[in-house]
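Q: Could you fold this chain for me?
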Amino acid sequence: MAVQPIELSAFLELSASIPVLDVRSPSEYTHAHIPGAYSLPLFSDEERKEVGTAYKQVSRETAIKIGLDYFGPKLRALVEQVESMNTKQVLVHCWRGGMRSAGVAWLLDLYGFRVYTLIGGYKSFRQYIVESFQLPARLHILGGYTGSAKTAVLEKLQRLGEPVINLEALASHKGSAFGHLGLQEQPSQEMFENLLGMEIRKNQFNQCWLEDESWRIGSVLIPQPFYNQMRAAPCFFLDIPFEERLNYIVREYGKASKEELINGVLKIQKRLGGLETKTAIGFLIENKTADAFRILLKYYDKFYRKGLSSRSSQAPAIVQLSAANADPDRLTQLLLTNLP
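A: Sure. Below is the predicted structure, expressed as structure tokens.
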């Protein structure tokens, strides 16, 4: 049995059933990785730095010897960690498909695992991801003012088997000043791109639904080539009365603590204006949540209208779909019955 180097396409195909082992350092993995990969670092961050410095400043041979000093004591632990995964085959990669993946692959092959390594390493995967944003996409955009239950409608569409890319789920943020509440920490920009790129590739030949988003979702940005396609795609706008949307938003965010809500208002105080910020915070302090959200909803409606006006001049006319309230089931049915 011998280690088998394979190209990215085969690597990703096998990853559906075989564990991917990322042998880069912990900080490299934490920053961004192939979605679903396990971290199996050959070196700690400090060890990697020392080896890299020796490679650049002394020689390749010196760097390898230092690496072996660190690698030797870890041999058994690395094998046992992979053994605990209850698999006979593994996919291994490092940054460029160099010495780190070669060392771990040699060890696991020696022990008896069937080992595949990624030609070009994680760097080749990143190139694949960046290229995905340039691919022609078939998109349907779900629009509507804040409080129109767009995310719930997307989730309903997905349950019905419709292809969906949930940008807010990938970004771990709902896009507003309160978008982080109840969610995990946002991924890095690179990790968000990895997640999005994989979704684009998965749905490349499907007519796919996405929510109408700003370029920025919390701290991450939608890659510009893909965002340009979103702005030129057909948009279906859920037109729901203001008071119904206000009720929906109060139900959605009203359970958050007073401190969290006030901090959310403060995040947009420059754009909201001093008087409106003071008034909204005052309402929150007095437990008048609906009155505070009424101010914020008017602000977000204005902000969203500005975004609609910036759609591509080549985009089809927006399809307006009016509904009495923000009921996700009825809105989904309305949406599907009005598709061209």
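A (continued): The longest strand covers residues 138-144.
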